[in-house]
Amino acid sequence: MALITFFLLLKEVFCLTYSMYPATNPPPARRKGCTMQAIPDKNMTVFFGGYDTHENIYGDLWSYKFDVDQWEQIFSSDGNDPVPRYNAASFYIEASTQFCIWGGNTNRGQLNDLWCFSLKFLSWTKKAQEGTDLPSPKYNMGYTSWKDSGFSLAASNNVKFAIFGGVETSDYSNDLFILDTNTWTWTLSSYEGETKPESQDFPVIFYYNNSIYLIYGLTWDNEDYDYYQVKFYKYNLTSSEWEDITNKNDPYTFRQYAQGVVVGDTFYYFFGVSSDWSDYPNICEKVDLTDPTYPWSEVKIRGDNDEYLGRETFGIATINEAIHIFGGTQWSIQVNSFVSIKYETDPMTYNYDENYISPGARIDHSLNYVGGYLLLFGGEFNGDYSMDLWQLDITTFIWKYLNPGGDIPPARSNHGSASRGDVLIIWGGEGSEGYLNDAYIYNILTNTWQLLDNSGSAAPSPRIGACVGIDFSRILIYGGLDRDGVKDELWLFDLGTHIYSLLDSNIDDGPEPLYKASCDYESDGEGKFYVMLGIDKYEYPLNGMFYYDLAKDKWITIYNNNTNVQWSRGNAQAFKVKDRYLIFGGEDIWQPSLDVFYYNATSKQFTKLTDLFTYVWSAAAEYIGSTVIIYGGAADTGMTVRRSIPSTNQFGMDLLSDCSSSAECYWQCSPGTYKSGKTCYLCPPGTYQPIYGGTCQSCKRGTYYQYYGATSASQCYPCSEGTFNNKTGASYCLVCPYGSSCPAGSTAPSWFDTDKYDSSIQPDLLDSGESEASSNAAIVYSTVGSVGALILIIVLIFYERMTFLVKIDAYTDKHEKKLNMPVILKKTKVGGYFTILFFVLCIMIVVNTIINYVVNNEMEVKALVPLIVMDETVSKYTADMVVNVEVKNYGGMCIDQNGDCDNSISYAIINMHGTSIDMSCSANTTNNDCILYIRCHDCQVENGAYIFYSFLSSESYSTGFTVNVTSFSSIPDKSSSYQASVYSSDEKVFRGATASIYNFDTVPSYFKDSNGDNNTGYHLALYESPTPGSQFKTNELAVSYDLYLRLNFNKNSNCLYTKRSLKQTWLQLISALLGSIFGLLGAIGGAMAFVEGNIDAQASKADSQMKADKIADEEERLEMMIRGFTEDGEKKGYFNDYISSDNSHRNMPD
User: Fold this and answer.
1) CA nearest to 394, candidates 377, 416, 379, 376
2) In this structure, are 1139 and 998 located in the same domain?
3) Residues 697 and 845 placed together within one structural domain of the fold
4) Which positions, given as ranges, span the membrane (predicted)?
5) 483 exposed, middle or buried (CB, 10 Å; 0-12, 13-18, 19+)?
6) Full residue range of the structural domain in which residue 1026 is found
């Protein structure tokens, strides 16, 4: 949990606490080549100039005050300053408290001017130099100064100043010049004797006991190419002779661009860089100047930051029993660390103020809270515009220089800026080419800039001092100063379409033309854009506060009374905190203001809180936690604001300190923070807080945020593809298990492949019923046939007993059919048996015929007919339609608390009309799908019809869409449905101005049946694959906006005509049945007659055979009787036997 505190020096001013950071105040910018002197009478050091790796050459004057351990930039009272330079020489004249510089280098070449700064009058004076031999323009010379004992202490100046060597315009020098500061006269020292130093670059000289000592620098003019010589020389000011005093047994170590100081009788030689530039040794060597052999020895330096001590081309001075070192270069990087080395300890110890990287002095820049950090952009420094971007960690107060990619904005100042979530917007301003009207957006997650090009024809004019507000997808721009004057226009720039629009409003109710106002935006309803204070066309400060209500398209006045000049402010800082408007800095109608006050919109009262301890003019400020952090702005000297001179002011103003005695504090923790006790804390990762005085809210499942201090739900980004998160308030996502699937925004792994195939359900061709009829007939045949067969078998088995067969015989006229004989009606068992067979078959035929009539009695004809042909028949085509859209892994709110569609979701239906159209929504909380239903009753589709869905939440994104469109067909009880899906590319989600597009082919249909009834409807198809919309990676969502889907319905030029008619009527059915029954009756009768005839024939044949056999038997018996008469004479017996036999002959057939 990050605590928004500042480990700073605190200053109590009335009821507010001001916090300086660092405790020493912001130090000078990193640099090398400054010139530095001790100011013992004021217990401070002073340095001037230098340059950095960005080729910035400085002309600033700084002091480090040991009484309060603070840096302070010193500004001249009249602005008559020397040109910026580096590697100049300097000295201090204590008697007149003048710090003087001489020579140095600029981008235009070397200098030989002499300037002195009065620490009493805070002004620079360019000195007129005298002498017959003036030094040539040069830099990198050795220099030293000393008090001249030949002058009385009462004299105004009693210092002499010497320079040696250096880099001139076209050569190196070995001249020694001495300046008499009493007369400002230079003398070229003569060389007596044979010894003379070589020409040198960056030698080191120092004064001791009437002599000037020289440590060799770089001897580039050496004929033997011996550039790195270890030589120690001494120049006697009395004899004017040079002496080589190099101790070859105990020499010093050669180093380039080293520095040193004299302390008592000892000279200390510090640091530098090795001859091959491979090392910046942390080394100090000393020489005892009282020893005639001048032996050198190393002095050990020990501390916690030894590796950061070594450097070259730094400033050095001694005061308060310490040697102080500032700036220089370490490994090609300029530093601004300040080292105080205690030379009396063995080994030497030191205090080390770490390098403090900061944006440096500037005015008219911007400072905005973005993604848990403060971002500083642009501004102006000494007439140069800046394009650098800096990031401040508000928990450690450490600045970081950002090196963004993308479309880098041109350098500018006086631009408008606003922030939301993880993005920064800048607009307009002034650059080297003049006024600007371009817009750029910065994404802190990707560290990239993007130009917001204008896609429309209208745009605000180039201008400065416009104020800017931003909601999720719109930039609002008000006022500003262009070449024609001060403006009162309110412009809106749509971040989705990149189109400007001038909002039509009653400007009489709004702010007057102004510039350099403060603006803010609140997401309240449709949004409110606040404009506070400003400067009017007469350069007078204003005292008005307004807001523009985007929902009502009108200005609302909060307070407006420019006659109340006590509270009028221009170029001030203003922040809206609930119903209070905090105001400080800038100027009132007379002069720059130190007031800190607020306006209470509820009580309509102004209240002063306190005074600032420094002027805040053309600075930048931001409210974070309960602290207003101010950076930069114009410098001030006493009661005067130096409007064109930038400062490095950096401090915080804690508003909660105003509430130390109150039970309830009206100052609230800012968005992105929450209050615990009397302290504001950054919301932890996985949460966000969008309002003043709110509590941190958890990111929903499937999303995460890994940083502190989120201000918007839009910063809860979906888990990237291949990861998931099943908990709220997550700061990271989990990797999906092997074999599972996790689209972006997943709440859980899926073990099933996502269905990415299209599907279609269309009305089938008419089922003739033939198969059903055949099936039913088979059932009838099998059932009736089986039962009938069983009955017939049983009857046949028990035929002799089945006497009822005679009674049911239906073929009474079919039994006796003899030619030329009358028909005799009679009933027989055979007739009864075949009657049963007739009924069985009759049932089968009748049932089958009825089944075919009922089931298989309709036929269908289809045709595609041009619509123009159908115009006389059909006036319009209507059908109930349902459009179902599944928004996969939707990031925004799907439904509100009432279960209705969230107001961020809307739709527009064009060229589709119905008796009623309504939309409903439902949320699938398992996987964050949002399902939208549109029902169009009696829907009529015209040419160019489409449905356009807009998802305008700041969290709107999706991994895919599944669209199902269903329409009732003209065919009764049938519908046409088509479903298709489109998914985002790997590691991306749908978002942005380009909609995903579905193109449906909508075919009108017309149905007519045999009863004369008719219907209309539509048949649907997808005539091409869906077109994916704009897509972004999750870390690009901060600079993308909205989500759109378009469903196009192309009305086909043909109509699907369907006509159905009966195969047969009921009269035809009855005729068929009668024909079948009587035909079957006749057929069965014929079969019965045939079978019965055969039976009768067989019976007749059997009877005839029996008669024949009987006759034969009788004949044989008669023959035997006759034989008996003849053989035994027993005629009488036989005859009697014959007579007495049974009268069976009476029963014999004829």
Assistant:
1) 376
2) no
3) no
4) 778-799, 830-855, 1066-1091
5) exposed
6) 862-1062
Residue 795, helix vs strand vs coil: helix
Positive/negative CA dihedral, 722, 728, 731, 734: negative
Nearest CA to 1069 out of 852, 858, 860 is that of 852
Query: Residue for token digits 């957006």?
Result: 441
Q: Are 546 and 555 in contact (CB under 8 A)?
A: yes
One domain for residues 346 and 207: yes
Q: Which two tokens stand for residue 271?
A: 């640091």
| The token pair that represents 130 in the structure block | 């005298």
On whether the CB atoms of residues 153 and 141 are closer than 8 A, the answer is no
The residue among 316, 261, 266 whose CA lies nearest residue 295 is 266
- Of 353, 378, 409, which closes a domain? 353
Backbone angles phi, psi at 900, to 5 degrees: -85, 165
The answer to whether the CB of 280 falls within 8 A of the CB of 270 is: no
Instruction: Give per-residue burial for 1104-1123: e unless 16+ CB within 10 Å, then b.
Output: eeeeeeeeeeeeeeeeebee
pLDDT number for residue 1147: 44
Q: Are 469 and 476 spatial neighbours (Cβ–Cβ below 8 Å)?
A: yes
* Residue from 965, 1023, 959 nearest 988 by CA: 959
DSSP reduced 3-state for 919: strand
Q: Which residue has the tokens 């009397």?
A: 678
CA-wise closest residue to 550 among 497, 494, 492: 492
- What per-residue confidence (pLDDT) applies to 817? 64
* pLDDT for the residue numbered 24: 82
Question: Going by C-beta distance under 8 Å and a sequence separation of 6 or more, which residues neighbour residue 45?
Answer: 36, 37, 38, 39, 63, 64, 317, 319, 324, 326
Burial class (CB in 10 A: 0-12, 13-18, 19+), 757: exposed
CA distances 917 to 821, 895, 1064, Å, are 87, 19, 43
Does residue 11 fall inside a structural domain?
Answer: no
Q: Are residues 292 and 403 in the same domain?
A: no
Structural tokens at position 970: 């003209």
In the block, residue with structure tokens 């302290």: 679
Element (H, E) at 850: helix 829-855
Note whether 74 and 122 are within 8 A (CB): yes
Going along 842-953, which residue ranges are E strands?
Answer: 858-866, 879-888, 905-913, 916-924, 929-951
> Pick from 476, 623, 641, 638: which is nearest to 571 by CA?
641
Task: Examine residue 603 and state whether it is found in any structural domain, yes or no.
Answer: yes
- Residue 7: what pLDDT? 34
pLDDT in tens, 3-29: 443 333 334 334 567 777 777 888 898
pLDDT at 786: 82
Residue 54 lies in a domain: no
Q: How far is residue 60's CA from residue 243's CA, in Å, rounded to a whole number? A: 39
Write the CB contacts of 344 (distance below 8 Å, at least 6 apart in sequence): 321
| pLDDT score recorded for residue 818 | 65
What is the C-alpha separation between 1147 and 3, in angstroms, rounded? 139
The pLDDT value recorded for residue 821 is 65
- What's the token pair of residue 405? 């990619």
DSSP state letters, 72-90: EEE--SS---PPP-BS-EE
The distance in angstroms from the start CA to the end CA of the chain is 134
CB 325 within 8 Å of CB 260: no
For residue 507, give both structure tokens: 């400007």
Q: What is the pTM of this model?
A: 0.79
CB 38 within 8 A of CB 317: yes
Q: Edge-to-edge strand order for the sheet containing 204-208?
A: 204-208, 211-215, 232-236, 241-244
Q: Which positions of the chain have pLDDT values less than 50?
A: 1-14, 152-155, 663, 1131-1132, 1134-1135, 1138-1150
CB-CB neighbours of 509 under 10 Å: 13
Residue 1078, in any domain of the structure: no
Q: How far apart are CA 277 and CA 584, in angstroms?
A: 51
891 CA to centre of own chain: 12
Q: Are residues 869 and 888 in the same domain?
A: yes
